[in-house]
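Work package 3, deliverable 3.1, input record:
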Amino acid sequence: MPVDHRGSPLAALAALLADPTRAAFCSALLDGRAWTAGELARSAGVAPSTASEHLSRLIAGGLLSEERQGRHRYVRLASPAVATLIEDLTVFADTTAEAVAGATAEAVDRATAAAHATGRPAMARTADGRPAPRNLREATRQSAEARARTCYDHLAGRLGVAVADALLARGLVTDRAGLAVTEHGRAWLAAQAIELPARAGRPGGRPVVRSCLDWTERRSHLGGALGAALCRTALDRAWVERIGSGRALRVTPDGGRALHELLGVELP
Amino acid sequence: MPVDHRGSPLAALAALLADPTRAAFCSALLDGRAWTAGELARSAGVAPSTASEHLSRLIAGGLLSEERQGRHRYVRLASPAVATLIEDLTVFADTTAEAVAGATAEAVDRATAAAHATGRPAMARTADGRPAPRNLREATRQSAEARARTCYDHLAGRLGVAVADALLARGLVTDRAGLAVTEHGRAWLAAQAIELPARAGRPGGRPVVRSCLDWTERRSHLGGALGAALCRTALDRAWVERIGSGRALRVTPDGGRALHELLGVELP
DNA sequence: GACTCGTTTCGGCGCCGGCCGAACCGTGCC
DNA sequence: GGCACGGTTCGGCCGGCGCCGAAACGAGTC
């Protein structure tokens, strides 16, 4: 029986994301890939049974879609729209959480004290508000992700920002009057045989370019249909490849050359 | 003492909107104006004490800002960013709620049956999923809002859609490669002495044009910095005026003439 | 068929959060 | 000063939800 939210679809949707465990699931799924129920349970630190219930609710609410294979239940974000929604919420939440915390520093002290009182350690955080790595493995993972990673279906990290800068610098994308692809940019995409979906940019369709705030870089990289197409191309042509099972990427030698020649991107 | 969301800013933010009463407050405040605590309490059908607590939480969370005047507590959305966030969530929630309901019609039946069982009437809804008006006053209000209203800080309803269509038809705005103001459009705005904020369109700033799905018209109208500027201008120059205390607008005779001459907009 | 493993269902526990009414506070008005 | 009114604080009630562990289920493996 569905939960009663007095007929408010907004509240019902928000309630899905209002639980820390479900929120963690969605954040993990922002890498754009399918995870199994067990992986998500472990990554969030809850029992498999708990995860199973959460997943059912997220799927029923239209945020996730599932695909069963054998004894596995694969789960992913239902659509790019869900990804942008969660990104937007995350960015807003992070920035205002920071502002609020800064404005009332004593509130943080109180929270820390309360966490102590309940025996639950206050979460360690770096200066920028992200959780601090708790061991070497996590630290290397974070550094790899800072270099290059996917953000749902587009490129992020220093690589993502560098590509965004290059597109702007070469006039393939402009930010006068809002982000948009220039004529020059369209020609360049055609020359590289990179295609955008026909619906992109039309009302109701996915925006062609979207600015997406990058947590590690504190700068913007490019999302939208263009960001997705570039990421797809980079993976298809083996310019980048996945590292392990997370969202971290490695630029291949071929990829380094291609990015340099096509866009003048220099990677450190 | 703040609520523990295990350090997930996303969950903490979503929790603010996960309550039907708080969601109703935010939806009401989408008209872009300041409401008093009492008005919100009555509009949502809760006790003033309850409303007061909800408002404190929304303000502490950075979604609302307050302004005290005498014995009144005026409250509004903290920023246009909050408004777009809530709009986005609402649109997504409405469309997927519909899809989910359509996919599993028997679930709706069950819900209706459950509502009956608990003695709480299932909310009456029109074909498009909006709550059906329960009396004449509400019906006239809805019809006035369908004609013309504000949507946070820009124009919506048939008027909003008509203006959006006119801007597109005259080439002042284009939707190739995403919505953007054309050169022609910039000149027109300058000629009308309509100014956009300097930060608009820059990364981190507000987008210049944004498509915003219109509930009543099922078509898009224009938001963003341009939408806000147009609405401001229309109110400043008395092309439109508020009806009562809601978000409904009336086009003045002067306004009708101006809209026709400047944009070729014909109002039914 | 026995076993493993990923997942699901169920019962039960604990807690949190929303709601109200009553009392209180401060402002503005008469 | 007295009163009305909007807003707030507090205590208490209640329902719902997240969590777990145990048990069941089903697919794949030996």
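Confidence is low (pLDDT under 50) at residues 105-135 of chain B.
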